[in-house]
Amino acid sequence: MLIVRSPLRISLGGGGTDLPSYYEKNEGFLISAAIDKYIYITLNENFEKEILIKYSSIEHCKDASEIKHPIFREAFDMLGLKDSYLEIQSLADIPAGTGLGSSSSFTTALLKALHEYKGDIVSTRTLAEEACDLEMNRLGEHIGKQDQYIAAYGGITCMTFKKDGYVWVEPLNISNEIFYNLEDGLMLFFTGFERSASSILEEQDKKTNSNNTEMTRNLDEVKQMGYDSKNALEKGELHKFADIMNVHWEKKKKRSANMSNEKINEWYDHARANGALGGKLIGAGGGGFLMFYTEEKVRLREAMGKAGLSEVRFRFERQGTKVVF
After folding, report:
1. CA distance 72 to 119
2. pLDDT band at residue 258, thresholds of 50, 70 and 90?
3. Would you call 154 helix, strand, or coil by DSSP?
4. Which alpha helices (DSSP H) does the chain contain, by range?
């Protein structure tokens, strides 16, 4: 049996500039951080002459081409496992559709497990590139490259998206003290709203591809905020980083009418009135998790709890996708 895990992520700056519609013309930049919440894939050979797949549904297939789940089906095809009889199960610490990159973490973990089953030696970069190819090219999803790369690499990572599609990856250059201070100051609260990232990002994609000047200007400004966040974090200026998050959230809301809603805005204002120095909605928007930076965690935790939001406590994950058994 193989067990592979892949971390989920939070975005710390520049999110949205990792879509081809933007970076192919302008280059993109963002900072992403892996967290200790995971997608797990378990795999073992099935002695029955069938493929058995367990996720929110259960599939019994005689051939990989019969698999209904698109990521499973394309992963089998990509790695040439048409005639392999396997039992595969996916498990998640946090549900899909909550803005933490679960779909791409799932894809990356699945590909890693299938490569391990075949006995392949696959680099971290190749794993990330294959996950991007599967989701963006084979399945035509309107998503960016952040999630696959942070799932593969882990850590707190800066990514530059070149016009030719190459992704330059480097760790954020911060001391252990800043690392832990940042980790201690960030909090996640679940809004209760789940949504499809692809549908929201499709709107951004269409506007960018049609040379919508307002969207391009918005993303240019968000990219600069990514650089500003990098500079603030590397200098240990966490209050400045929090201020940038607030500005980023205001810019992000302007990209789509579906980015936020009255309730999310109300919770955001409530957090700001109760100790949150900065914050934003994680992921493409529309729901998922609100993230805040604070130096008054007890006060903010109590205020958001009274408002009906559940906190998910987390730490940063220094490693990316890996075989754990």
Report:
1. 19
2. confident
3. coil
4. 20-26, 70-78, 102-118, 124-132, 146-153, 176-185, 197-209, 213-234, 238-253, 262-272, 297-306
**Does the CA dihedral 226-231-235-239 come out positive or negative?**
negative
What would the 3-class secondary structure string for 114-129 be?
HHHHHCCCCCHHHHHH
Q: pTM for the whole thing?
A: 0.93
- Are the beta carbons of 225 and 251 closer than 8 angstroms? yes
Decide: residue 321, CB within 10 A, 0-12 exposed, 13-18 middle, 19+ buried. Answer: buried
Q: What is the pLDDT, as a whole number, of residue 261?
A: 86
* Three-class DSSP labels, 192-257: CCCCCHHHHHHHHHHHHHCCCHHHHHHHHHHHHHHHHHHHHHHCCCHHHHHHHHHHHHHHHHCCCC
In angstroms, the Cα distances linking 301 to 50, 270, 276, 295 are: 49, 11, 10, 11
Q: Which residues contact 100 (CB under 8 A, 6 or more apart)?
A: 8, 9, 10, 35, 37, 94, 282, 283, 288, 289
Distance between CA atoms of 164 and 99, rounded to whole angstroms?
27
Given the structure tokens 């903010």, which residue do they identify? Answer: 300
CA neighbours closer than 13 Å in the CB half-sphere of residue 190 = 15
